[in-house]
């Protein structure tokens, strides 16, 4: 049985969580199997990112995650924010995992989504891809994703958001 490994480098953003009374879930940087493949009780890690928590919405991200996010852009002035998927990154990453499970490709997928001031993706550019099928699938997923728009000088603005995946197969 082949093992699918996806490493991710994704730009993310951060804000301060709302109420002090609100409990937040711990940050998650991985996606694991729903059930073990064999008799072992250990779930394999299917996807791991070192960038930011994938289970958080923009306003739930830590200051550390925000700093990692901002480092992906050449310059984001103090007080400005990049765009960010409204439901966080996990739905997008989960879709990429399913596509990789079906397509079994190897190589880097690098997309850049242009997000308008309403949070809609108006263009998806592919900078690199392991296959035309993965390009089509990934562009569709990203293109249908709703984003929190970027904030420039206190107002919603258009900005790009990059996605980078490295697909590898292990036996």
UniProtKB/TrEMBL annotation:
Leader sequence residues: 1-22
Keyword tRNA processing: no
BP terms from Gene Ontology: transmembrane transport
Keyword rRNA-binding: no
UniProt keyword annotations, A-Z: Signal
Protein name: TonB C-terminal domain-containing protein
Coiled-coil spans in chain: none
Domain TonB C-terminal: 105-166
Source organism (scientific name): Massilia eburnea
